[in-house]
TrEMBL record:
Domain Acyltransferase: 9-335
Phylogenetic placement of the source organism: Bacteria, Bacillati, Bacillota, Clostridia, Lachnospirales
Residue stretches spanning the membrane: 89-110, 130-149, 156-174, 180-199, 211-230, 250-268, 275-296, 316-338
Protein name: Acyltransferase 3 domain-containing protein
Coiled coil: none
Taxonomic source organism: Pseudobutyrivibrio ruminis
Membrane topology: Multi-pass membrane protein
Entry similarity comment: Belongs to the acyltransferase 3 family.
């Protein structure tokens, strides 16, 4: 049996659900209002149920990221080396997705500056997809983290996790990730040591299905309560009036609980399905295709501008869902075609480059 079919499909299904959540979070024209007339404001408090629901959809992206991080760290804590072939694969897939989208949008009649075009040839270098660049750096240093993890006693590791949680998931989180020189890479490392403690010293407890359901439900309830409280208080406290998305970060303790509980729940189950495993194996490619910087900065704005001009936003949630479905279908389709055709060729080419470097 292949590696893809040997993998526990319960875990792989959770990763597929996570990527769908991430795609849904990216399927709306949120962000900087100066980018287009199609902009929707999900930062400001509101009584508009569609904007509130869109805000919750946006949160699902970071929740999906946390699920991916927990799953990745679970397997990386036992890894002692960063494989050149895997690093080359990340870079090759990233390059292909970036150039493919550049070609597609140029063919559609878009024009870009020379500087912008050059950046598409170096997507990891210029952080065109923040998660990929951060994950590559994290993957490269994880052998050093493994050495640190193995050198800590249980008490030392527990102390570290408690201090990290207080500094970054509590104090730093409340202050909008502006304290203690935070970066997403630091956050990834925090997940590594947290998951490392669970796997080394609490793995038997982590197999308790009831406990994971409680952790998951606690995270969901706290997330919804904090979101509703921010919206309610925003009408009474001026400084909170545009802070609905303030808590939209991988360091949100509610999202961390959801990630731990969701992965733990998947880990307690076991079944095998080759289709689920295959789609899961394409998850990072799917991520890079749908979250391509040209789509984020141009495509979605123009699409929603057309929707707004022709149909309005009375059925905004329906349009977000429709765009998300198209995103999922097209990303899976393109990822599959790439995987079945030129992916190995690209990987061999980038392995040669990485080896020479």
């Amino acid at each position: 049996m292949s590696e893809k079919t040997n993998r526990n499909s319960s875990i792989e299904l959770m990763k597929v659900i996570a990527i769908v959540m991430i795609i849904l979070s990216h399927s709306m024209p949120d962000g900087d209002g100066s980018l287009g007339a199609s902009y929707i404001d999900i930062d400001s408090v509101t009584t508009n149920w569609q904007l509130l629901l869109a805000g919750l959809f946006k949160n699902m992206g970071q929740i999906g990221n946390d699920i991916f991080l927990v799953a990745s760290c679970w397997f990386l804590v036992d890894s002692k080396q960063a494989k050149r072939s895997k690093l080359a694969g990340f870079l090759a897939d990233s390059w292909f997705c970036s150039i493919l989208m550049l070609i597609v949008f140029l063919a559609l009649g878009y024009s870009f500056s020379l500087k912008y075009i050059v950046k598409q040839f170096f997507p990891a270098t210029f952080n065109n997809c923040w998660f990929l660049t951060c994950f590559i750096l994290f993957y490269m240093i994880h052998p050093l983290l493994h050495v640190a993890l193995e050198s800590m006693s249980q008490k030392s590791l527990l102390r570290f996790n408690i201090m990290f949680f207080i500094m970054y998931n509590c104090m730093g989180f409340i202050m909008g990730n502006t304290m203690f020189y935070f970066s997403e890479l630091i956050g990834f490392c925090g997940f590594y040591f947290l998951v490392g403690y669970i796997k080394k010293y609490a793995s038997e407890l982590y197999m308790n299905k009831g406990l994971n359901i409680k952790i998951l439900m606690a995270g969901i309830v706290l997330w919804l309560v904090s979101f509703a409280a921010t919206d309610f208080l925003g009408f009474k406290v001026g400084m909170l009036s545009d802070q609905l998305m303030r808590w939209d970060t991988i360091m949100n303790p509610c999202f961390v609980l959801i990630g731990i509980g969701a992965f733990g729940l998947a880990h307690t189950g076991e079944f095998y399905n080759s289709f689920i495993n295959y789609i899961s194996s394409l998850s990072l490619i799917i991520y890079m295709l749908h979250a391509n910087i040209i789509i984020r900065q141009y495509g979605r704005w123009d699409l929603f501008a057309w929707i707004k001009a022709n149909y309005g936003y009375d059925k905004l949630i329906l349009w977000i869902f429709a765009y998300a479905v198209v995103n999922v279908v097209m990303s899976v389709f393109l990822a599959t075609i790439y995987d079945r055709t030129v992916r190995r060729l690209f990987h061999r080419g980038f392995e040669f480059i990485v080896e020479k470097i």
